[in-house]
Amino acid sequence: MVDRNWAERLSDARILGLTKRESDLIEYISSQPQEAAFLRQSELSSKAGVSKPVVISCFRRMGYADYQEFLEGLQGFYAGQIDSAQASSVAFKDVTSVAGLVSQALKVEAATLETLERHLDPIEVEALARALIEAPSVCLYAEGSGFLPAHYLSQRLRRCGLSVALIGGDRPHVLDDLAQVRPRDVFLTFFYTQDGPLMADILDFVKTRGAISVLVTGTPDPELYRRADHHLFVPRGQWNFKNSLAAPMAFAQILLLTVEYLGGPELQTRLKDLESTRKRFGSPKKGEES
Q: pLDDT by residue (tens digit) across 192-250?
């Protein structure tokens, strides 16, 4: 199952009771998440004006095993509040060559995919794939970087014989596009922007249409989670390589492969026939080769 996110852990800790100094620490983090998420333990205690034992007691009260785990939870939750320029400055801070940059980037990508593996529940993936197969139609919606995995998935799902509509990027006509959503359709969105209120409105509207809503996001938001019928945590990347789409694209590929797997021999035959036709359709005639 998906781990509890940073906000949920904090909510539980507050119910149990935070000390005054722990509350001061949380207040600082909440006001400066883009800075706090990159600080060493000693730096965080100094910036927040609390002692190191307070930092330790706070992350333990939230159920984190150590400071690094606490920091990763904080980074994941507030990922949307750091812009690309900040992300690049962090990435370049300890890099002295292109070779070093490549090495660091690959390590970050690997860590991101490991995070995806920890959070992705195969049972949820299978249930979603079956819902896509059984739905009268599938509506994929995304803006910004989320549009890339949505676009990829829309193209490949059509090859599987599913009815798919891809929308996004044209806000004045979003409602016009969403009006085509019908009962029992699946509405799947890749949400990687900061416009939570818009997504909340969209999820509410889709619910009035009787569709099944699926929220794929890297920034856990309890309010959006409550509005969606299903939600999956798929990180966009680490903060220091925020624009990476390794995990969302990997998730789209995993979901597609699951659909193909569940489709069985009949779907495999369809895909083979399609590829055979594609080769004949795209092959140049004799004498036309360049």
A: 876 888 899 999 999 999 999 999 988 767 788 889 999 998 887 665 565 678 899 99
* pTM higher than the cut 0.85: no
* Cα 211 to Cα 214: distance, rounded to the nearest angstrom: 10
Q: How confident is the model at residue 287 (pLDDT cuts 50, 70, 90)?
A: low
What's the burial of 87, exposed, middle or buried (CB within 10 Å: 0-12/13-18/19+)? Answer: buried
Calpha distance 78→221 (Å, rounded): 10
Domain ranges of the chain: 1-77, 118-278
Answer whether CATH 3.40.50.300 is correct for domain 118-278: no
**CA–CA separation, 180 vs 113, rounded Å?**
35
Question: Is domain 1-77 annotated with CATH 3.90.950.10?
Answer: no
